[in-house]
Description:
This protein has 418 residues and is α+β, with helices and mostly antiparallel strands. 43% of the residues lie in helices and 9% in strands. A six-stranded mixed β-sheet has the order 2-1-4-6-5-8. A two-stranded antiparallel sheet has the order 3-7. The protein starts with 72 loop residues before the first helix and ends with a strand.
Amino acid sequence: MSIPPPPGPHQPQDPYQPPQPQSHPYPQDPYGAPSQVPYGQGAYGPQVPYGAAPYPVWGQGYSPFGRPAPVNGVAIAALVLGILCFLPAVGLVLGVVALVQIRRRGERGKGMAVAGAVLSSVGLALWVLALVMGGAAEFWEGFKEGASADSGFSLAKGDCFDVPGGTLDKEVYDVDEVACAGAHDAEVFATVPLPGSDFPGAGQVADVAEDKCYTLQSAYAMDAWALTEAVDVYYLTPTSESWEWGDREITCVFADLEGKSSLTGSLRADETTLDADQLAFLKAMNAVDEVLYEEPADLAEEDLEANRTWAGEVGDATDEQAAVLGAYPWSATARAPLAALLKDMRAAGKEWAAAGKATDVDAFYVHYDTAYEYVDGDSTVTARKALGLATTPPTYDEDGSGSGSTGGDGDGGGGLHV
């Protein structure tokens, strides 16, 4: 049997050279183990053979010239937005995104991303704080304005309003301003400012309202005959709580006496709505009425002297206003009716003067009753008709105050807290 030759090219042996040992694929040590394993033939994978470069080649991303990694662009944007405090929420998001990209890509700019995120967080917090504080301030100012009676729920002279529930016989917390031409619950005829920094007390506020509102009504509604029996005076007053919010005014209003019906049209009758003839007439007649309303509470038989003094004052006021009306240049249509009224006023003045000089109660009442027959008599109605004023005389209570008007110390009306 033949032995196959060893692998590789077969070279004949030189007869003049000593025999060469046969080469083995792996050099053997004396004990038969390979003495060295060439690179590339190792048991754990291919190795670099002898003579090759001793260092392995780096993978993708290696810069053979030592160039630094690029800076992350998102980090730059986050830093810019953080410094400018512009769109802080966006800057915060970009900072977080940049940190994720830098970690994954091995890019630079971590410090910029962190700084941008931090600055954007601070800016976002400041924006939220500003919005919250601004909204709170706006709410507080609105609350103060609405809650205070600074002109009674911000109502001014001449305003008309409705009250939720349609009644003014209890505390009022809100009103709805409406046009005076239509139906409404009340109409403002005056506002009274209260001085001082400390709340004067509910009792004192009510006293001021009682005095001022009943006095000021005739300046707004000069034609008392135009007020129906259902109309009376009410007032809105501040409380100790609303005083702290800036409430410093009493609001005087006309409203239905029982709160069961609405007013229609404005009750205003003053310099802004009256012509010159109407204004002259009402000023004179109201001056006489003011003295008439001061009639003593005690009857003549109880205090004759007080009644005599008052009657003399009425006579003087009647004569004085008759002289004023007589000197006024009336229009052609009003001249004759006013002449008849002046005649009656002079006659009434004499009777009042006689009552002021009466020596006993019976004589006082004789002149008193005759003088009162001229008050709101036929000549007054005729003159009012010629001037285009209301022609229905008011009725009077026992105390002499007109129930159709609300003059004097009327018993109706009331104080309402805001």
